[in-house]
Amino acid sequence: xxxxxxxxxxxxxxxxxxxxxxxxxxxxxxxxxxxxxxxxxxxxxxxxxxxxxxxxxxxxxxxxxxxxxxxxxxxxxxxxxxxxxxxxxxxxxxxxxxxxxxxxxxxxxxxxxxxxxxxxxxxxxxxxxxxxxxxxxxxxxxxxxxxxxxxx
Length: 152
Hints:
Order of helices and strands: HHEEHHHH
Distance between the termini: 79 Å
CATH class of the largest domain: Mainly Alpha
Number of strands: 2
Strand content: under 5%
Radius of gyration: 31 Å
Number of domains: 2
Helix content: 55-70%
Number of helices: 6
Strand order of the largest sheet: 1-2
Structural class: mainly alpha
CATH topology of the largest domain: Cytochrome Bc1 Complex, Chain D, domain 2
């Protein structure tokens, strides 16, 4: 009986100390992790600061302000395309030269796009070179398949 009372009396403080220690250690690890992590807001603000100090900055071959690939003709694309819409709209479209020319003519006829002059060929060459038509889809085209009919 005395042995059980001794265990009860000594176990409670020990359990409390262990629980409190675990909470403190977890909290400290959480704080350290939080302070060491680079948050998206910090990353965006760093990029925003870099863009603000040098709006034409190119890093790893990408024009930071627009996201366009650096290359001959990029400036013409920025000058003629991004005043009206995001460069992301340009990047997501993949066309051949005829497709881009047709799109430019459509924008001139319906969207008040100005005459690009000599820059039109530069823009088309840049877009077809840096953002070519993607021939690969989600999967390869099925070939030499023997189809069978399902019986009901």
